[in-house]
Amino acid sequence: MSFEVIPAVDMRNGKCVQLVQGVPGSEMVSIDDPVAVAKDWVSQGAKTLHLIDLDGAIDGKRKNAPIIENIVKECKPLGMKIQVGGGIRSFENAAELLNIGVDRVILSTAAINNPQLVKELADEFGSEHINVALDSKNGKVAIDGWKKESEFTAVEMGIKFEELGAGSILFTNIDTEGLLQGVNTAPTEDLVKSVNIPVIASGGVTKLEDLIALKNTGAKAVVVGSALYTGKFTLPEAINIINEDL
Q1: What is the pLDDT of residue 178?
Q2: Which of 40, 70, 154, 201 falls between 20 and 30 A from 82, CA-CA?
Q3: Measured in Å, how far apart are the chain's first and last C-alpha atoms?
């Protein structure tokens, strides 16, 4: 895959939101119709959509599943790839999403708590459909909607999950996530150097130059949320600068 800018559609209580460092109640953006938001990103040139059920991630209940299904129905026929995370706690949760046409499921807490789940899903559906999210806070992987820190580093977990069959890793630097203060590329670069599967970067993107910096780490894509929703730059501008940097 060539480097790609992927817009985020994060959902909480049926709305498209952007939280500061994943903290409930810190919404800097709240939009009533996530389906319309997703279709708008498609019209602006997105090739992949990043859908997160924040209710699922934070509370373990996938309240926004019907909205995600609607986005898949509306956007897949337009050629979109769709990756979904948030509250995927079981084989059945993941299978349900893959069976409705989701291209990649993103496992986080479930993967850390039950690494064998990654292998089971990869064996059944193929590695390319299984992504593991490694969300790093103070150098350690965070779980349970970022409320708890594990004892593992992202590099340790990245190596482990590659061996178990994950086809890609979503790496979020929580220390910079949602603050709109720029990226810290070092942790992403460390992870990229440690694994052979694609790493998708996330967290802290504020200006167009941040996209180039993350591309230069060797990451294969970047998920962007707050910077797009608050008008720091547009998706077409982001796509253009990446293409110019080829």
Answers
A1: 64
A2: 154
A3: 13
